[in-house]
């Protein structure tokens, strides 16, 4: 059983919703970022999404793009991102890490070499925004074969006809994008999200985690209550951008996690 | 030797064999005579489908690939739209009424066909090959860009989209898009890098006069690639009513093929005009490349005429070397994935995209259309680079010798013509795509030449 599957099994046994947090690896620098990531499980984070910096994050809003720029300027690379995961794993062998980013840095490194290194670094799953099912042969299938979960995004534009294609070869969980848009922009609305989650659940047994447009403990609770969990990214990254200390950032994360867990 | 035909081993393109009778597409030059053409379509175009011989013109495959290049590397939100666009384009492609509307507008709104002009003084000055210029700078809006925009806007209307977005570098695509949107009464939003907004001020004003909203892009480093990122972000947000009118032969499938097909009117006309002027095919065709749409438009109808040398000219900026102050993706980059397709990109060892550098805003893009990457790898086309300094020299020579003020983009192609023409015999026919006029560039050129515009007497 993968760390992700084990985590969801444990959450289900407790009757709890999942809280997933996103931070950009190396933002604002390697050491601060590592300190924040190390503190996430204690702040209530069930699954860590670790952003892989990229110069051209087409599906992200300015908050995440600027985080990537800060990380790159501080010398972050794919190799350093995997080092950060390795370092985290030394003290935590159960919290799943999902690497989230864009394909080019992975393609540039070479898919086989990347998968080997990611596995060794304790990465459990991948979310690669610019790899739809039509491009599964690129990374999704090799990743599954290497024992990594490949987590797919489903969106409001993924209609019932297309949904099976999106769900095929998806594992770990399904990431439902609550809005048509970029990260950190519009607000997710629980009344809209609920029926969409039900629509996807009708076609899969995988947990459905909802992200995009969730930025407060209340929203975290509202969305988690209509799904299997909630993801918060830009709101946390915004705290880092504002120069908050790791302790302050983690306090904010805890409030979001408490929100989701109270659902 | 440069002028031997490029090698193209059969094995390299065997996978592009056309399937007999299956979804064979009727492209503009295969229909028969166009309203403004009096020459019949060559037999070659028609017999191609019946021969199981290797062709360079059958790509992309059903996954949008030219060899390993191209594809559909977009987020899930956009995927359904890309598929519906592909479906709509497949329908339009074989719909006579679609092409009839295109040809009517090409003829009466754009002013096609553009002339094929024998550049006599330039030919004498260079003292070698006979040089023809395909005058796409005479099109309405001053460049080849409108050929493609018309096609996409007609498609957008068929799809019921009411809002058009575009990215622009030099501003030519933005102006063309704003123009056609004004003509059809569509809302138009143009994303333009903040840096380009400054260096192409006349085009920014043109777009605004035409009723478009111009959004200066400051994300990233505020250049064409960032404008494309922001256009994609807009599209993903407004996916239901918005059509993204991409200005070059790049982006996710079907854009590279669709834009190529719309621009192929350039090469189709040039082929027939050269036939009329000289009774034969040109020996060399040559065009400047940023994303590569004017070049693909000229090249595509000639791909299977293997006697024709094909040369693409990239922007060499300050020189193609380790400093990476250039935009020569093919000569100075390597394959990667950006903006929906796999193609040659300027990137660092970590796969992070680098900023290009060129005096020409229209060539200032770190990627290139995937079909060019494929033609480069199989050797059917040859790609070279020209520096800013060489392009400026060509710009001035063209003004002096021919009374044509070229845009900086085709000045790159012309600079390569200047290099090769003197070494070639007088019966060697060169056809260069003069894809844009230079009015927009006079301020940049004046600055580069140290001419003070405020003291013009």
Automatic annotation (TrEMBL), chain A:
SUPFAM superfamilies for the chain: Ribulose-phoshate binding barrel (SSF51366)
Q: Catalysed reaction(s)?
A: (1S,2R)-1-C-(indol-3-yl)glycerol 3-phosphate + L-serine = D-glyceraldehyde 3-phosphate + L-tryptophan + H2O
Enzymatic class: lyase
Active-site positions on this chain: 49, 60
Q: Which domain of life is it from?
A: Bacteria
Which stretches are annotated as coiled coil?
A: none
Q: Which Gene Ontology molecular-function terms are recorded?
A: tryptophan synthase activity
Pathway, per Swiss-Prot/TrEMBL? Amino-acid biosynthesis; L-tryptophan biosynthesis; L-tryptophan from chorismate: step 5/5
EC assignment: the record states 4.2.1.20
Q: Which UniProt keywords apply?
A: Amino-acid biosynthesis, Aromatic amino acid biosynthesis, Lyase, Tryptophan biosynthesis
Q: Which GO terms describe its cellular component?
A: cytosol
Which residue spans traverse the membrane? none
Task: Say which family it is in.
Answer: Belongs to the TrpA family.
**What does the subunit section of this Swiss-Prot or TrEMBL entry state?**
Tetramer of two alpha and two beta chains.
Q: What does this protein do?
A: The alpha subunit is responsible for the aldol cleavage of indoleglycerol phosphate to indole and glyceraldehyde 3-phosphate.
Tell me which HAMAP family the record gives: Trp_synth_alpha
The protein in question is named Tryptophan synthase alpha chain
Q: Which organism is it from?
A: Sedimentitalea arenosa
What are the top taxonomic ranks of the organism?
Bacteria, Pseudomonadati, Pseudomonadota, Alphaproteobacteria, Rhodobacterales
The gene behind this protein is trpA
């Amino acid at each position: 059983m993968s760390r992700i599957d084990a985590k969801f099994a444990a959450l289900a046994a407790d009757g709890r919703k999942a809280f997933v947090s996103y931070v950009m690896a190396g933002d604002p620098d390697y050491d601060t970022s590592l300190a924040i990531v190390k503190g996430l499980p204690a702040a209530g984070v069930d699954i860590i999404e670790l952003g892989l910096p990229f110069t051209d994050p087409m599906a992200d809003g300015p908050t995440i793009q600027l985080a990537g720029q800060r990380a790159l300027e501080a010398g972050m690379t794919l190799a350093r991102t995997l080092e950060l995961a390795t370092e985290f794993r030394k003290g935590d062998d159960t919290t799943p890490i999902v690497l989230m980013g864009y394909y080019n840095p992975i393609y540039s490194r070479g898919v086989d070499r990347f998968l080997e290194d990611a596995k060794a670094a304790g990465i459990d799953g991948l979310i690669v925004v610019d790899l739809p099912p039509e491009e599964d042969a690129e990374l999704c299938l090799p990743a599954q074969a290497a024992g990594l979960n490949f987590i797919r995004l489903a969106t409001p534009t993924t209609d019932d006809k297309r949904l099976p294609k999106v769900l095929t070869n998806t594992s770990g969980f399904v990431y439902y994008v609550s809005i048509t848009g970029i990260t950190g922009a519009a607000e997710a609305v629980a009344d809209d999200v609920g029926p969409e989650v039900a629509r996807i659940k009708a076609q899969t047994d995988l947990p459905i985690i909802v992200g995009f447009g969730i930025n407060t403990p209340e929203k975290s609770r509202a969305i988690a209550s209509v799904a299997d969990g909630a993801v918060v990214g830009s709101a946390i990254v915004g705290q880092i951008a504002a120069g908050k200390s790791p302790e302050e950032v983690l306090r904010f994360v805890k409030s979001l996690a408490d929100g989701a867990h109270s659902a | 030797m440069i002028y031997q035909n490029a090698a193209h081993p059969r094995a390299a393109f065997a996978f592009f064999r056309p399937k007999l009778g299956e979804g064979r597409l009727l492209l503009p030059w295969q229909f028969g005579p166009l309203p403004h053409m009096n020459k019949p379509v060559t037999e070659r175009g028609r017999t191609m489908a019946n021969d199981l011989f290797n062709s360079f013109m059958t790509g992309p495959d059903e996954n949008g690939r030219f060899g390993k290049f191209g594809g559909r590397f977009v987020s899930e939100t956009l995927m359904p739209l890309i598929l519906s666009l592909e479906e709509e384009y497949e329908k339009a492609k074989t719909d006579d009424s679609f092409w009839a509307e295109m040809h009517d507008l090409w003829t009466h709104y754009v002013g096609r066909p553009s002339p094929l002009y024998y550049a006599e003084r330039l030919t004498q000055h260079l003292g070698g090959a006979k040089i023809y210029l395909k005058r796409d700078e005479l099109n309405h809006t001053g460049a080849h860009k409108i050929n493609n925009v018309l096609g996409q806007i007609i498609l957008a209307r068929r799809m019921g989209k009411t809002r058009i977005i575009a990215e622009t570098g030099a501003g030519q695509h933005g102006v063309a898009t704003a123009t056609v949107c004004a003509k059809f009464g569509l809302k138009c939003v143009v994303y333009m890098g903040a840096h380009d907004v400054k260096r192409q001020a006349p085009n920014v004003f043109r777009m605004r006069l035409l009723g478009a909203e111009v959004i200066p892009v400051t994300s990233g480093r505020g250049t064409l690639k960032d404008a494309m990122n922001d256009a994609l972000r807009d599209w993903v947000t407004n996916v239901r009513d918005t059509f993204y009118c991409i200005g070059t032969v790049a982006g996710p499938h079907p854009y590279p093929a669709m834009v190529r097909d719309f621009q192929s009117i350039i090469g189709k006309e040039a082929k027939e005009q050269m036939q009329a002027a000289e009774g034969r095919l040109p020996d060399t065709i040559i065009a400047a490349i940023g994303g590569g749409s004017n070049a693909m438009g000229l090249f595509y109808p000639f791909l299977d005429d293997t006697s024709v040398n094909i040369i693409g000219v990239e922007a060499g900026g300050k020189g193609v070397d380790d400093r990476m102050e250039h935009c020569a993706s093919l000569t100075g980059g390597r394959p990667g994935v950006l903006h929906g397709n796999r193609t040659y990109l300027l990137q660092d060892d970590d796969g992070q995209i680098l900023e290009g550098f060129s005096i020409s805003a229209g060539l200032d893009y770190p990627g290139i259309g995937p079909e060019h990457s494929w033609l480069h790898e199989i050797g059917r086309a040859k790609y070279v680079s020209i520096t800013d300094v060489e392009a400026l020299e060509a710009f001035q020579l063209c003004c002096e010798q021919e009374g044509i003020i070229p845009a900086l983009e085709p000045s790159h192609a012309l600079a390569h013509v200047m290099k090769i023409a003197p070494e070639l015999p007088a019966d060697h026919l060169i056809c260069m795509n003069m894809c844009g006029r230079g009015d927009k560039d006079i301020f940049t050129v004046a600055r580069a030449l140290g001419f003070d515009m405020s003291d013009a007497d």
